[in-house]
Design brief:
UDP-n-acetylglucosamine1-carboxyvinyl-transferase, Chain, cell cycle, 14 helices, binds uridine-diphosphate-N-acetylglucosamine, 427 residues, four-stranded mixed β-sheet, binds phosphoenolpyruvate, alpha+beta
């Protein structure tokens, strides 16, 4: 298992271009299954989750290549509708294949998806939505079979604005007969990106970015070329890392509108942020101030995917902050690890009470999930001494070689890949 070794105490400095968004690229790749032809997707980051998605698409019969940041996907000979359990279990986003396969072939056979252990993560809203469109769904243990002779548009109200359920229903509705209206839809920027991609292929969708999305079913789609939006969570991670190390970083080719809630929190903690077109400048010269109360909630509120990273900044700030997590019940696993580095954090149910300390100290810590791992990397960059972050594969799910990105900003961070017992050094 790879480890990251970080020598802390070096302020980040410089300019960086941010990778494409994992959470946009994954549903877009899955949605490509709706069409027969060659789809080209640009700005796709090299990540473990993307590799898994491409493996699933190949298993379904696609030809898929990922060169540089571009994925070329030929779906012409894809006709399988079964996804093996081993692939389904590798990530949550395997669930995105349901809508497209059902839409194109009228059936899909899958297993419960896997993913980071951050909460229960049910899929009832996905299934309810597909049932409303006319799918017959059988669940046997963790096996799920879905069939529909013909999907028909429907009015679907989500009891919670689930990102994945909104996307799955949109994808299934594209080739359905008639109009689908999704109310209380999730409003995340990645949903707008999916709408743009589907419309570029000939779909007729409006409303993404609001809480009501309308899909007018079409007969067929045509392949297209599409570039994925920048990753707001990676951008946010870098912004927090700059602030926590008291550094100065410019982020280029980002969409500042996608980061409004983070910018607001950072400004409240005294970090200087300036925005100029698609550039964000972060100047974290002074010790941050505590932020009284932050609550994670669906977009446009503060994102759960930046909760752990911001907690590191609060752990180093002057005063007591409260962070409330309302999306995932198991998303405070970084707290124990941060405490090992000297943080003073108490968790009570879904709230963390963070008493800022003047400094953190290097330690050996474990990434328990993707964003918890990113938080520990930030803590290591800001800490005094050496930090070793274990279980880096979690971080590799969402960051395209995080050590290279941070090294470009002056961080002292290297990846250590152990030599396996057979003596072969991995690539
Ligand atoms: C690939 C991707 O885009 N992942 C993001 C997506 O995950 P994901 O799409 O899984 O997140 P959801 O918005 O669906 O989940 C949010 C909450 O709703 C619950 N829920 C969801 C679906 C369902 O059928 N039933 C149900 O109860 C979940 O358990 C969770 O408590 O949005 C999350 C919330 O912003 C982010 O943290 C993830 O990074
Ligand atoms: C929780 C996340 O992703 P996923 O939904 O793919 O597990 C994340 O990106 O932080």
């Amino acid at each position: 298992m790879d480890k990251l070794v970080i020598e802390g105490g070096q302020p980040l400095s410089g300019t960086i271009v941010i990778q494409g968004a994992k959470n946009a690229a994954l549903p877009i790749l899955a949605a490509s299954m709706l069409v027969s032809g060659t789809v080209t997707i640009g700005h796709v980051p090299k990540l473990l989750d993307i590799d898994v998605m491409l493996d699933i698409l190949r298993e379904l019969g696609c030809r898929a290549e990922h060169n540089g940041q571009t994925v070329v996907l030929n779906t012409v000979s894809a006709f399988h509708t079964h996804i093996p359990e081993a692939l389904m279990k590798q990530m949550r986003s395997s669930i995105f294949l349901m809508g497209p396969l059902l839409g194109r072939f009228g059936e899909v056979h899958i297993y419960q998806p896997g993913g980071c252990a951050i909460g229960e993560r049910k899929i009832d809203l996905h299934l309810e939505g597909l049932r409303a469109l006319g799918a017959h769904i059988e669940e046997q243990g963790n096996r799920i079979s879905c069939r529909a002779e013909k999907l028909r548009g429907a009015d679907i109200h989500l009891s919670f604005p689930s990102v994945g359920a909104t996307e799955n229903i949109m994808m299934a509705a594209v080739l359905a007969e008639g109009r689908t209206m999704i109310s209380n839809a999730a409003r995340e920027p990645e949903i707008q990106d999916l709408q743009r991609f589907l419309n570029a292929m000939g779909a007729r969708i409006i409303g993404a970015g609001t809480d009501t999305i309308t899909v007018e079913g079409v007969e067929s789609l045509k392949p297209c070329h599409y570039d994925v939006i920048p990753d707001r969570i990676v951008a946010g991670t870098v912004m927090v890392a700059a602030a926590a190390t008291r550094g100065k970083v410019n982020l280029e080719q980002v969409n500042p509108a996608h980061l409004t809630s983070l910018i607001h929190v950072l400004r409240r903690s005294g970090v200087q942020i300036s925005v100029d077109g698609d550039i964000i400048k972060v100047d974290g010269a002074a010790r941050p101030k505590a932020v009284e109360r932050i609550v994670t909630s669906p977009y446009p509120a503060f994102p759960t995917d930046l909760q752990s990273q911001v907690m590191v900044l609060l752990a180093l700030s002057d005063g007591v902050s409260i962070m409330k997590e309302t999306i995932f019940e198991g998303r405070f696993k970084h707290v124990d690890e941060l405490s090992r580095m000297g943080a003073d954090i108490r968790v009570d149910y879904n709230a963390a009470f963070i008493r800022g300390v003047p400094r953190l100290y290097g330690a050996t810590v474990e990434a328990t999930d993707l964003r918890a791992g990113a938080a520990l990397v930030i803590a290591g960059l800001a800490a005094q001494g050496r930090t070793i972050v274990e279980q880096v594969h979690h971080i590799d799910r969402g960051y395209d070689r995080i050590e290279d990105m941070l090294s470009r900003l002056g961080a002292r961070i290297i990846r250590y890949t152990p030599v396996p017992d057979n003596g072969v050094v991995p690539n």
